[in-house]
Amino acid sequence: PTPPAPFDHRIVSAKRVGISNYYNVNEDEILGGGRFGQVHRCEEKATGLKLAAKIIKAKGPKQKDEVKNEINVMNQLNHVNLIQLYDAFESKNDIVLVMEYVEGGELFDRIIDENYNLTEMDTISFIKQICKGIQYMHQMYILHLDLKPENILCVNRKANQVKIIDFGLARRYKPREKLRVNFGTPEFLAPEVVNYEFVSFPTDMWSLGVIAYMLLTGLSPFLGDDDNETLNNILACNWDFEDEEFRDVSDEAKDFISKLLIKEKCWRLSATAALKHPWLTDHKLHYRLQ
């Protein structure tokens, strides 16, 4: 099997020394960004290994603890479809996570790229890998809670290999603990997050349903004219297959989505069940789609 990263899994804790002692961080080359700050390309001085440095603004102890939670989560995750952590550095105003470098770009970019014709077979390959990553996280009792196309990277342009990134909102599942997530993009939120109710493993599976819907059609199932409308669509579980973009999509794909975008979270497919669904397993279907 493909190794999870070009280096062995390591248990990382934040060092209180300057990162520039060990790494050359390329300030000009920005690989990505998000609510936390920016990701730069970097290189380990001793080995020449190409890596990615995620620079997270963290001033107070509360912010620092949130990033340390991210480190703690990543320390537990050793899987080919989850981005791997290599090192970490803490200074007065930020924490830098040094991670495996992935050159392919966001899955999100592929959805909106007119030139990149995403076939249903491509989508099956992506969803299967995302689902394996989720299954592994859930076996480790970790919830991701921020799954969306922006948080999935293609390993390289040619191969269809993908990795889940950004464990900034991820946490250990503790039964009966209400989880408060101050969320970013409403269109990917599960109803229980919008409602401030208990979240658990099915919360990530809802997001997988949204991602599958988007990869197949380029459309966002719950997106309204404003955030309020979007949130109302989610709470009403108001979505359908009416758009013409679904004309050539297989019944199996529609069935898969229908078993994830369910308001009542206990009825959604688990990651393990999803991996056994005909859409991801039926070779005759795959042959027909090729």
Tally of individual helices? 10
* Uncertain regions spanning at least 5 consecutive residues: none
Structural class: alpha+beta
Sheet bearing the most strands, described? Answer: 5 strands, antiparallel
Number of domains: 2
Identify the quaternary structure here: single chain
Portion of residues in beta strands equals 15-25%
What is the helix/strand order?
EEEHEEHHEEEEHHHHHHH
The gross shape turns out to be globular
Record the strand order, biggest sheet. Answer: 1-2-3-5-4
CATH topology of the largest domain: Transferase(Phosphotransferase), domain 1
Give the averaged pLDDT, no decimals: 90
Per CATH, the architecture of the largest domain is: Orthogonal Bundle
Question: What helical percentage do the residues reach?
Answer: 25-40%
Tally of strands: 9
- CATH class bucket of the largest domain: Mainly Alpha
The named CATH superfamily of the largest domain:
Transferase(Phosphotransferase) domain 1
**What is the CA-based Rg, rounded?**
19 Å
Instruction: State the end-to-end CA separation.
Output: 24 Å
InterPro entries: Kinase-like_dom_sf, Prot_kinase_dom, Protein_kinase_ATP_BS, Ser/Thr_kinase_AS
Protein name: MYLK4 kinase
Keywords: ATP-binding, Kinase, Nucleotide-binding, Serine/threonine-protein kinase, Transferase
Organism: Malurus elegans (Red-winged fairywren)
Brief sketch in words of this structure:
GO terms for molecular function: ATP binding; protein serine/threonine kinase activity. With about 290 residues, the chain is α+β, with helices and mostly antiparallel strands.
